Every structure is written in structure tokens, then in C-alpha cells.
Amino acid sequence: MPARRTLSARLPDSLTEELEAIARAEGRTVSQVLSRLVDEALRMRRFPGIIFADGPAGRRAHLAGTAFDVWELIWLLRSYEDKAKALLRDFPPLDSRHIEMARRYAEAFADEIDAMIKMNETIAERHVPQTGRR
After folding, report:
1. Residue 73: which of 62, 60, 85, 86 has the closest Cα?
2. DSSP string across 34-47
3. Terminal CA-to-CA distance of the chain, rounded, Å?
4. What angle, rounded to 10 degrees, do the helices at 70-79 and 96-108 form?
5. Which of 58, 71, 76, 89 is such that its CA lies 20 to 30 A from the CA of 97?
6. pTM of the model
7. Which residues contact 24 (CB under 8 A, 6 or more apart)?
8. What distance in Å separates the CA atoms of residue 73 and residue 87, rounded to the nearest whole number?
9. Do residues 63 and 50 lie in contact, with contact meaning Cβ atoms separated by under 8 Å?
10. Which residue has the higher pLDDT, 128 or 86?
11. Which is more confident, 18 or 55?
12. How far is residue 52's CA from residue 55's CA, in Å, rounded to a whole number?
């Protein structure tokens, strides 16, 4: 667990109330929610075009304006043996900026992206019927 420091901040009542509501809904403390939101805001500032979305697998980095989470695009790119031009040809809504953004984010947060890919592969192995082909 990373080292933590106490930080005092004065927030408007409206923000405090919203943080408390999120914390109640998620079964977390206000401190945990605030820490996650600040982390996400700093990542979005560092990587413009990356947003965060909730889903069945939890919150994850997503490429704004696309249907792809970062981990999905990185997984696809790996399946294309890192051949971006071929991937872009097969997925016309994407452009080279999306791939570069996903690569940069994945490089900075490799453990996070690799864990999402691994989790998806594990679920697929359990739930996709085996064809019996070898």
C-alpha cells in the first residue's frame, strides 16, 4: 500500500454532500472516494482523452469518444502483433491518436492494464466453450 499523508481541504457544502452520497452508495469512506477521484483527475490531466467509467469489472480507464477501455485497445493491439495500421484499417472509428493515447497510458500504468487483460482472459477461459480443436 502506498504511503499516505493527511491533507486538510475546505470544500463547499455541495461537494462534501456529493462525496458523502457517493461514499454511502459505494460502501466506502469519504476519504477513499476523494482519494480515488483525485487520482483519476490527475490521470485525466496527465492523459487528455482518458476518462474513467464504471462497469461490471469496476472503474477503468476509457478512451473518450470511443467504445474502448484502454485495456481493450491494448489487448487488441497485442493481438494484431502491435501492427497499428492493420488495427486501424479493421476499426475505422479509431485513429492513431487513440492508439498513442492508450499506449502511453498503458506504459504508465502497466500493472493496471495487464491485470484487466488477465482478468478478461481468465473469465473467457472459464466461460467460452472449448471447440475441441487443437
Report:
1. 62
2. HHHHHHHHHHHHHS
3. 43
4. 100
5. 58
6. 0.85
7. none
8. 10
9. yes
10. 86
11. 18
12. 10
